[in-house]
Design a protein that fits this description.
Elements lengths: L1 H27 L20 E2 L7 H36 L2 H13 L3 H15 L7 H17 L2 H12 L3 H52 L9 E6 L2 E4 L2 E2 L2 H6 L1 H4 L5 E6 L2 E6 L7
Antiparallel strand pairs: 1-6, 2-3, 2-5, 3-4, 5-6
Helix pairs in contact: 1-4, 1-6, 2-7, 4-5
């Protein structure tokens, strides 16, 4: 008895679920546009802030930048090739005429009047089940009647007509635009890669200048490269480990200072840090 009752209820529920699914899937195609982006754009890589626990000094900073530059170049190349391949495969599947055919075929396979008849037949068969009590019969009939009332055939028919009115010509234009964007994706990514390489090369040059500055300070005994130190340049003053340096010392290192009005270079237990401009407030 329980098995039969469950079968009737499941049959009615599946019929309703099928109706809802067709309506939802159909609307997914409406007014669709396609946009392709190359993922996150490469950002400028300037040594305004170099900070990692494994970076202990300026030499580590340069080595890390070289590693990142090589890794970026390799990853971008691999990712771009894979992305182009995947998108090209996806574009082959996005054919407006094919989508239209699939929608029409799906609609043809759904007999809405038959679904209504099946639900009504299920209600009628309940009366023939002598294993159910009167209360169970009335409850099940009420549930199926409620389910049948929920099936608004007029509304469903209108939704189907809207699906049929999908502007597939517009969809084809969107697909053509997407294909064009895909064709231009490769050159655009290559351009961004070159831009990133230039910025990273500039960053490496800046770090090399900083290394020369630190090495010279070490040779002159103003810092010990093996110990912690802080070098600040702000408001026209050179401050090393909290001590303002005299004008003669400032002049000796002017060639390193004149191109960067404010910066802080710090080596401590947390690692090696370079802060330019407003970042000086972070230390």
């Amino acid at each position: 008895m329980q098995k039969k009752r469950s079968s009737l209820a499941i049959g009615a529920s599946l019929s309703l679920l099928l109706l809802c699914s067709i309506a939802i899937i159909s609307w997914d195609f409406k007014d669709s546009t396609f946009h392709f982006t190359g993922g996150q754009e490469p950002t400028d890589t300037i040594p305004g802030q170099v900070q990692e626990n494994r970076i202990r000094d300026i030499d580590d900073a340069i080595a890390e930048l070289d590693r990142a530059r090589t890794e970026m170049s390799e990853n971008l190349q691999v990712n771009m090739e894979k992305m182009q391949k995947d998108l090209a495969a996806s574009m082959k599947e996005l054919d407006a005429s094919k989508i239209k055919m699939q929608v029409e075929q799906s609609l043809k396979q759904v007999d809405f009047e038959k679904i209504q008849r099946d639900i009504k037949d299920a209600i009628a068969k309940i009366d023939l089940d002598d294993h159910l009590t009167k209360e169970e019969l009335e409850k099940m009939k009420a549930e199926l009647q409620h389910s049948l009332a929920e099936v608004n055939m007029d509304k469903i028919s209108k939704e189907i007509e809207k699906v049929k009115e999908i502007d597939f010509s517009r969809m084809e234009k969107d697909l053509a635009k997407a294909r064009k964007e895909l064709e231009g994706l490769g050159p655009r990514m290559e351009k961004e890669m070159e831009k990133a390489k230039v910025e990273m090369e500039k960053a490496r040059t800046d770090l090399q200048v900083t290394k020369s500055f630190i090495d010279e300070l070490g040779r002159d005994g103003l810092i010990s490269k093996d110990n912690d130190y802080t070098i600040k340049h702000q408001k026209g003053e050179l401050i090393i480990n909290g001590n303002k340096q005299p004008a003669a010392v400032y002049d000796r290192y002017r060639r390193y200072l004149e191109n960067h009005k404010e910066f802080t270079i710090k080596k401590d237990a947390d690692g090696f840090h370079i802060h330019n401009g407003d970042d000086i407030k972070k230390i």
